[in-house]
Here is the input.
Amino acid sequence: MGHGQLHTALQLPAGSWWDWDVLAWDGGRFRLAAGHDLAYHHGLEVVFGDPVYVSCPTAFHDPVFRAPSGGELEGLTRRLGEEPPVVVAFEADGGGQEPVTCLIAAARLDIVQGMVLRYRPDDPAPAGTDGTAPGN
Here is the structure.
């Protein structure tokens, strides 16, 4: 399993990745979206292929990525029967009094950067844009 293992702190491209949410969990992929304001768009996706363990809130802020601890890796290995190739650990603001500890294990990890609108272009314009009705 030596190829493609990630058991260090996740490194993200430069950018304002404050606001995070679960974009989708389908077809063997768990996708997180990040940006400075997710109301209209996001600029980064962290895609976990074939996730085998996910523990994180559906929305969170200011994640601090770190290498998983030895205890976290041992616990995952015990639960799953083998050490997963990708393990991402972080603490984040989940909306409570204390930061929440998050852990995600998967077969693969892809980081995709690029602007993605959070609404379809043929939908009515979101508040704060030109305000004209569609088709006018």
Notes: Residues 28 and 50 are 5 Å apart (CA to CA). The chain has one helix and six strands.
